[in-house]
Amino acid sequence: MPKLSPDRQVVKREQILKGAMTVFLTSGYAGTSMDRVAAEAGVSKQTIYSYFQDKEGLFRSLIEQATIIRFTTLFELDHQKVEPEQLLRRLAEIFFNDVVDRGNYIPLLRIVIGESERFPELARLYTQAVVQRGKSMLCEYLRSRKELKLHDPEAIAQIFFGSMVSWVILQKMLYGEELMQLSRDRVVDQLVHLILSNSDERKIESTPIEKH
């Protein structure tokens, strides 16, 4: 098989990912095979394996494409040139507008949640590829802004991303929009307010929660 140019390799990879997305969303993780992906993408199974090691690697690439990759350019900016409120609101805007509204984030998340008991690697994959990386990038930024005087940037980063993911699950997947509607703007406003207004407060003593 002749070697493809770099541009053609990118096109071929996207062709495979597009076919894989269709199969995963139609058949779920368990029902997806490399044979079915190859047929949907119009390529040979050998071609798929030249780009992706296995089905898990293929699914990981889809998750990354739908989520974390959309944030990387924002964090590549000079940390000192982006004000905290601007960055936090831009993060929320990317998450809700680009990831949730325009992508396949919700159906992919349904697969992760629905099939993680049989395939625990899906939950680990999502946590590593999305949650940990997103939290690490925001944590690094918050630590770089010494003027905020945050006592636990890691916890704040997890609360920020975790609250937005929780909003998606409750409002979009568990019928919260019908039963207990809460706008995303209100959530973001309060998250930004809580982070910035409490950034210079005295350190709160950590008290272990007793288990009963």
Automatic annotation (TrEMBL):
<dbReference type="InterPro" id="IPR039536">
    <property type="entry name" value="TetR_C_Proteobacteria"/>
</dbReference>
<keyword id="KW-0805">Transcription regulation</keyword>
<dbReference type="InterPro" id="IPR009057">
    <property type="entry name" value="Homeodomain-like_sf"/>
</dbReference>
<dbReference type="GO" id="GO:0045892">
    <property type="term" value="P:negative regulation of DNA-templated transcription"/>
</dbReference>
<dbReference type="GO" id="GO:0000976">
    <property type="term" value="F:transcription cis-regulatory region binding"/>
</dbReference>
<feature type="DNA-binding region" description="H-T-H motif">
    <location>
        <begin position="33"/>
        <end position="52"/>
    </location>
</feature>
<dbReference type="GO" id="GO:0003700">
    <property type="term" value="F:DNA-binding transcription factor activity"/>
</dbReference>
<dbReference type="Pfam" id="PF00440">
    <property type="entry name" value="TetR_N"/>
</dbReference>
<protein>
    <submittedName>
        <fullName>TetR family transcriptional regulator</fullName>
    </submittedName>
</protein>
<feature type="domain" description="HTH tetR-type">
    <location>
        <begin position="10"/>
        <end position="70"/>
    </location>
</feature>
<dbReference type="Pfam" id="PF14246">
    <property type="entry name" value="TetR_C_7"/>
</dbReference>
<keyword id="KW-0804">Transcription</keyword>
<dbReference type="InterPro" id="IPR036271">
    <property type="entry name" value="Tet_transcr_reg_TetR-rel_C_sf"/>
</dbReference>
<dbReference type="InterPro" id="IPR001647">
    <property type="entry name" value="HTH_TetR"/>
</dbReference>
<dbReference type="InterPro" id="IPR050109">
    <property type="entry name" value="HTH-type_TetR-like_transc_reg"/>
</dbReference>
<keyword id="KW-0238">DNA-binding</keyword>
